[in-house]
Amino acid sequence: MRREFIITTYGALLVLTLIAGCQEKEEVKITSGNVIFDGGNIFQLVEGKLDLIENKGKIVKARVIMRFKNIANRTVSANVSVEFFDKNNISIYKTYRSFINYPPGYTDLPLTEDDLDKPIANIVTYTGEDVEKINHVVIKVKEITT
Predict the structure, then answer these.
(1) Can you give the residue range of the structural domain that contains 62?
(2) What value does the mean pLDDT of the chain take?
(3) Residue 10 — pLDDT band, cuts 50, 70, 90?
(4) Phi, psi at residue 77, to the nearest 5°?
(5) Which of 60, 69, 74, 122 sees the fewest Cβ atoms within 10 Å?
(6) So what's the pLDDT on residue 8?
(7) Residue 3 has pLDDT above 90, yes or no
(8) Span 92-114, mean pLDDT?
């Protein structure tokens, strides 16, 4: 009786292990697109990157990483527009970020892998309609004046 129990338990564990091993693996490939930047004599683009993220051969996400340096000789606040375009320069998605009270010479800190999925102003992610058509991104800076 004890032997049957051990054999049955071993068999069940073997089946569970096989089933778990059959789960579909996610294939992720990241390619880079073009970044066009207009800093408006306020910000310099220290890092600007457009990642087109594929899963199983299909682009599922576009992610822009941007780091700025304040090149104005004063503390500034700015609105930054980030707009994704297809190869025919047709806009697919546009959003805005605000950067408040950057002191003269301030440079954004480098981002880590852990930061990439967090809601950080320096990262814009798009997963919506026509994401697979994205070819380039335009980043424009406009000073906020009071």
Answers:
(1) 28-143
(2) 83
(3) low
(4) -120, 145
(5) 74
(6) 60
(7) no
(8) 91
- Whether 80 is covered by a domain: the verdict is yes
Q: Of 130, 118, 137, 116, whose CA–CA distance to 28 is shortest?
A: 116
- Of 73, 74, 67, which Cα lies nearest the Cα of 141? 67
- Apex 39 CA angle, 120 and 84, nearest 5: 60
Please give the angle made by the CA atoms of 98, 102 and 107, to the nearest 5 degrees. Answer: 105
Query: What digits encode the pLDDT tens for the residues 51-90?
Result: 999 998 899 999 999 999 999 989 999 999 999 999 999 9
Helix/strand/coil (H, E, C) string of the chain?
CHHHHHHHHHHHHHHHHHHHHCCCCCCEEEEEEEEEEECCCCEEEEEEEEEEEEECCEEEEEEEEEEEEECCCCCEEEEEEEEEECCCCCEEEEEEEEEEEECCCCECCCCCHHHHHCCCCCEEEECCCCHHHCCEEEEEEEECCC
The whole-number average pLDDT for the span 42-50 is 93
| Number of separate domains in the chain | 1
| Contact criterion met (CB below 8 Å) for 101 and 143 | no
CATH number of domain containing 68: 2.60.40
Give the N- to C-terminal CA distance of the chain in Å, as an integer: 84
